[in-house]
Amino acid sequence: MTKKFSLLFFAFLFIFGVASVALSAEQVVNVYSARHYESDKELYALFQQQTGIGVNVVSANAPELIERIKRESSATEADIFITVDGGVLYSAKAAGILQPVTSPLVLKNVPASLRDKDNAWVGLTTRARVIVYAKDRVTPKELSTYEDLADSRWKGRVVARPSSSLYDQSLLASLITLDGEAKALAWVKGITANFARPPKGNDRGQAMDIAAGIGDVALMNTYYIGQMLNSKNPEEVKAAQNIGIFFPNQQSTGTHINVSGIALTKYAKHVDNAIKLIEFLTDVPAQERLSAGNYEFPVNVAAQKNPLLASWGAFKPQSVDFSALGLNNARAIQFFAEGGWK
Amino acid sequence: MGRFAARLLPCRLLWNGWQTIRAFSFLCVLLPFLSLAGGIFSPSGEYWGYVRDHLLRDYFAETILLAASTGISTFCLGVALAWVMSLYDFRGRKFFEVFLLLPLAIPPYIAAYAYEGLLGYTGMVQSFFRNAFDLQLGSLTMNIPAQAWAIWIFTVTLFPYVYLLTRAMLRKQSAALFENALLLGGGRIRMFLRVGLPLLWPAAAAGAILVCLEVLNDFGVSSYYGLNTFTTAIFAAWFGMGDVDTAVKLALLLLALVFFVLLARKAVHNARRYQIVSSRENPIVLRRARGMPQAGIVLLCAFACLAGFAAPLLQMLYWLRLSWDGAFTAELGRALVYTLSVSAAATLAVMIAATGTVNAGRLFSGKFSVLLSQGATLGYAIPSAVLAIGIISFFIEADAVLSVFFPLLPVKFFSMGGIMLIFAYCIRFFTVGYQMVEAGFAKIGVIYTEVSRTLGRSVTGTFFLVDLPMIRHALISGSALVFIDILKELPLSLLLRPFNTETLGTTVYNFAKNEVLEETALPSLCIILSGTAFILLMQSWERKKAGHVSGN
């Protein structure tokens, strides 16, 4: 029996050995990505179909990928870095692991406001962080701004996720830029005092707690609403149908948007292929697929929005430079801790 | 073990093959420490002062609360189950014999997702009450703190560590011990407290220590519930603030915590060693439980199986029904093959290293010996993120050296293949194997080894002919535990897997991160069912062996 057991192990070992000799295509581009969406995978497959260039993907959390590219230095396999937050894109640039994208086609595809000023990264999609509310207990007229959620009339009615979430960190970072540090800290303290329960769960969790009547308002990224409305779980669809979407700060500083971006690494070994991939992903067909499949806003103005997003109408976005999200991130984390938002 | 050493070896001998295996294991564990060591002395950033003044107390409090509560709750549950399973016969005993180990196949983070799905707003329980009776139950669960959820998840998924070790300990005991205790009067409760508990305490404590270490290293559950533990703090400092120095300092504090726990265990273990040589002809006779006691026992066992295994499994099956279309992909098949093969390779390496290290610990005494053994088990305590970064730095340099000496090897031989990941798994899960092998050796004591040595058998010959057959149960259980642990592992796999490869764990994590929990069903079930299959295989094999021995 011992022999059989060892044999089993060696068989495993053998399979592993064979499996690890990966069949690698001649033409490749290596992507380190912090976006893990099905629509991305489909686009990579389409890219390979159209160009014959294989796309290899390592996916992990963005900061881990940045740390890895930094450590790997000139030995890195990464040609492309993709992530979902302006602040993270800023820190990737600050870490010195990126090189400017100069392709005229890319620069034409992506408006200047949605790329780095030195083109160290370019936008892929955007998403807005909006206020969602219980349709039966809140009227849109009661809602106005992010800042207003700190008002005491929302006491016991706000639900939120833990402050470890980058989405809220970046929102606070933008408020620090727009309102100043003192007001931003006061906002954290005010909204924390209004919590219906200790922070927990993810974005969808907040929507469900509103549906469950635990709270009346929450902050949520737009694409989650689209995903919930089209969920395979019928209960989730029902929950999403009971919440309304409100784009705050339309009379003042604009709704907080964040960008999902793509960048060329400093030590990329397949620069030409990498550029082709960036051109492909920022071009109209891919942009429309991203919006259709993942409920994100396209960066390419020529691309059609997903019908659901289009139905929400146009809105005024924040005009905060995305690098501010990175620069103020540390301050934002401190303010959350100080203000008691766990 | 050290105190017997003088009798096992010629007294002048300082080094042999066993010592080499141990020294190698020790060095491997040391590597990531060394490649990070620079960070210890670097000047601390602005953030460290902030962490030290405002957050450190919270980190300590929450980490200790979580680890200690889970340790205690798993200790109680594991010991209670092991006790009733070892001493009583009751309805469904055979069934529970199998099912009580199955929670081991469920990774805590998957259990966390499953419980969210089960008890959350869109879950079966709340949906049922809402749709059938128009009852909103959401407010009932909203005041349960996240810490309590985490402790619940850890307890129901990790208690088998305690149960398994305690059972193994009780199995070795002679019936005479308990019969005499009963004859002397005082009843069964008293017998448990005065005879049972002192006897099984070292084994149960070893299990609880494993559980604590598992909790201290957890990232999946703590981050899902947004807890401020040391691990999430290290992730936040390193990856959120980009402050490596602070992360390393936090990691070192966590290591100090773990080291004290390990030392304390060693002290307790040495102080209260009851070495009982059992004669196999006198196994414990199970007492038939009836009436209320039987109902209580069955309820206890059923609770453990339901909470730790059946509930998460059923939730995943429900989700599988929802996500059935398009769930089966070639990608998932590749992840399955990759995960199984890497886990098998790493398990083999861990068990060889662990057995070598424990045996070296029996042969050599002195402070140096203790240092080597204890040092090698520290890998379990290194937070996975820190371990991963340390290993990456090391292997990049190793590759650079390698390409100079062996230009024909593929570029990035180490860092791009699965070797780096296997190496990390080995460092991380060495302790699991080590503890199991150590417990196996502790049970047999040194008497047989001494006799064999006295009769002139060499150290290595004694190991293969005398020790190995006697510790094979420990080796089997150890391999199973290590294999399942690797199957369930998340953070290391996330950071160190090669291009174009996903493990089952990372596939699950990606779906959960995108907040599409129902899509986690199929990969989660692959992990759960592989683990389950492995446990069942091991059990049937162990039973056969046991039958074989008693048949003789």
Quick recap:
By secondary structure, chain A is of the alpha+beta class. Chain A has helices at 2-20, 38-51, 62-72, 86-94, 104-109, 166-179, 181-193, 203-211, 222-229, 234-241, 271-282, 284-294, 307-311, 322-327, 329-339, and strands at 28-33, 54-59, 80-83, 98-99, 122-134, 217-221, 243-246, 257-265, 297-298. In chain A, helix 6 packs across helix 7 (181-193), helix 6 (166-179) packs across helix 15 (329-339) and helix 7 crosses helix 15.
Q: Any low-confidence stretches of chain A, pLDDT <50, length ≥5?
A: 16-25
The unreliable regions of chain B are: 1-6
Q: Which outline of chain B best applies?
A: globular
Counted beta strands of chain B: 2
| Biggest β-sheet: strands ordered side by side in the sheet of chain B | 1-2
The overall pLDDT average of chain B reads 81
Percentage of residues in strands of chain A: 5-15%
| Structural class assignment of chain B | mainly alpha
| Overall mean pLDDT of chain A | 89
Structural class from helices and strands of chain A? alpha+beta
Notes on the protein architecture:
The complex is a heterodimer of chains A (342) and B (552). Chain A has 342 residues and is α+β, with helices and mostly antiparallel strands. Chain A has 2 domains: 25-126 and 259-305, Periplasmic binding protein-like II (D-Maltodextrin-Binding Protein, domain 2); 127-256 and 318-339, Periplasmic binding protein-like II (D-Maltodextrin-Binding Protein, domain 2), CATH 3.40.190.10. Helix content of chain A is 46%, strand content 15%. Chain A contains 15 helices and 9 strands. Chain A has helices spanning 2-20, 38-51, 62-72, 86-94, 104-109, 166-179, 181-193, 203-211, 222-229, 234-241, 271-282, 284-294, 307-311, 322-327, 329-339, and strands spanning 28-33, 54-59, 80-83, 98-99, 122-134, 217-221, 243-246, 257-265, 297-298. The termini of chain A are far apart. By secondary structure, chain B is mainly α. Chain B has one domain (24-551): MetI-like (MetI-like fold), CATH 1.10.3720. Helices cover 78% and strands 1% of the residues of chain B. Chain B has helices at residues 5-8, 17-41, 46-87, 93-99, 108-119, 124-133, 138-141, 146-171, 175-183, 187-217, 220-225, 230-240, 244-271, 291-322, 330-363, 367-376, 384-405, 413-416, 419-444, 447-454, 459-488, 491-496, 504-513, 521-551, and strands at residues 88-89, 287-288. In chain B, helix 3 crosses helix 8 (146-171) and helix 9 (175-183) packs across helix 10 (187-217). Chains A and B meet through helix 1, strand 2, helix 3, helix 8 and helix 10 of A and helix 3, helix 12, helix 15, helix 17 and helix 23 of B.
